[in-house]
């Protein structure tokens, strides 16, 4: 994942998504490729076409925040895309390495107090993951919900991206598989821009790109996203369809990790299914060492 090519392909892919009509410009002349011309983006951003062309070749080192902001506005970037552009610029000038929090150990173990917090969440599944989408810890209901992910894990830790693209069972677990696949790749893209020196991320992307055409196609789109809140559908082998709202928050005490909590609409069919799943989980004692690569 070379930074210059990453930046170049990201900017050109965002430009290709826009039409003159999207940005209030007249559509003049035949276009050889979809999207805005470089000169149109330059004009919208208030920079010369030579300067913008340099940026789109991946030369983001030393670019000021005001210029990046102008480019983001010109390309109509959303919050996730704008953050990604700034992350790529920080990686280009080396500040991402300085700003990235350093962990003291290669393995991560939840503090007893964090385990207590997870176990205290009884209304819905809760889990902790990193930006590579490794599943690091859960509450009992989260463990029961992701039983197939644990059982079918091929790496040292369960990984949502591996499961999604390399295990056919994921198409049963995710009824909206295409959406789940798009989301997984966008999360990995976002994390790769935030921490371009993560060797384990490089290894994961290489593995998925080698083994999955579906992953390669999505990875080449350079889409990113912030995974904060929404609704997802799952199909559990024991209790059937689950439609769950979720909220995700970054863990200040563990940089790079996030906590996601799921909940069902009260008195809904999913709420009853979750209650049944909780009963099934309580009747089965699962010994799981909560030590994971972070």
How would you describe this structure to a colleague?
It is a single chain. The chain has 15 helices and seven strands. It has helices at 3-16, 38-45, 49-56, 65-74, 79-93, 95-99, 112-120, 140-145, 147-151, 160-166, 170-173, 177-194, 199-211, 213-219, 269-282; strands spanning 107-108, 126-130, 135-138, 229-236, 240-250, 257-263, 292-293. The strands form two sheets. Strands 3-2-6-5-4 form a five-stranded antiparallel sheet. It has a two-stranded antiparallel ribbon with strand order 1-7. Helix 12 (177-194) packs across helix 14 (213-219) and helix 13 (199-211) crosses helix 14. The protein is elongated, with a radius of gyration of 21 Å. The model is unreliable at 285-291 (pLDDT under 50).
Could you list some keywords that capture this structure?
alpha+beta; 15 helices; elongated; 294 residues; five-stranded antiparallel beta sheet; 49% helix; two-stranded antiparallel sheet
């Amino acid at each position: 994942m070379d930074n210059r090519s990453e930046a170049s392909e990201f900017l050109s892919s965002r430009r290709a998504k826009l039409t003159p009509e999207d940005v209030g410009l007249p559509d003049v002349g035949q276009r050889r490729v979809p999207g805005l011309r470089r000169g149109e983006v330059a004009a919208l951003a208030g920079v010369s076409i030579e300067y913008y062309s340099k940026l789109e070749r991946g030369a983001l080192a030393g670019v000021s925040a005001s210029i990046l902001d102008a480019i983001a506005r010109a390309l109509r970037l959303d919050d996730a895309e704008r953050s990604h552009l700034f992350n790529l610029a920080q990686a280009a000038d080396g500040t991402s390495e300085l700003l990235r929090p350093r962990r003291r150990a290669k393995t991560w173990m939840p503090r007893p107090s964090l385990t207590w917090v997870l176990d205290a969440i009884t209304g819905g599944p809760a889990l902790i993951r990193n930006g590579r989408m490794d599943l690091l810890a859960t509450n009992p209901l989260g463990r029961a919900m992701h039983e197939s992910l644990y059982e079918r894990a091929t790496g040292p830790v369960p990984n949502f991206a591996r499961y999604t693209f390399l295990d056919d069972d994921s198409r049963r677990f995710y009824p909206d598989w295409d959406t789940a696949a798009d989301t997984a790749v966008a999360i990995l893209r976002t994390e790769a821009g935030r921490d371009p020196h993560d060797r384990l991320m490089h290894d994961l992307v290489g593995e998925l790109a080698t083994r999955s055409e579906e992953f390669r196609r999505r990875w080449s789109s350079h889409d990113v996203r912030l995974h904060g809140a929404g609704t997802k559908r799952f199909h559990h082998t024991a209790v059937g369809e689950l439609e769950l709202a979720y909220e995700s928050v970054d863990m200040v005490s563990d940089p790079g990790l996030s906590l996601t909590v799921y909940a069902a609409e009260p008195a809904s069919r999913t709420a009853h299914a979750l209650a049944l799943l909780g009963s099934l989980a309580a009747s089965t004692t699962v010994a799981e060492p909560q030590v994971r690569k972070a």
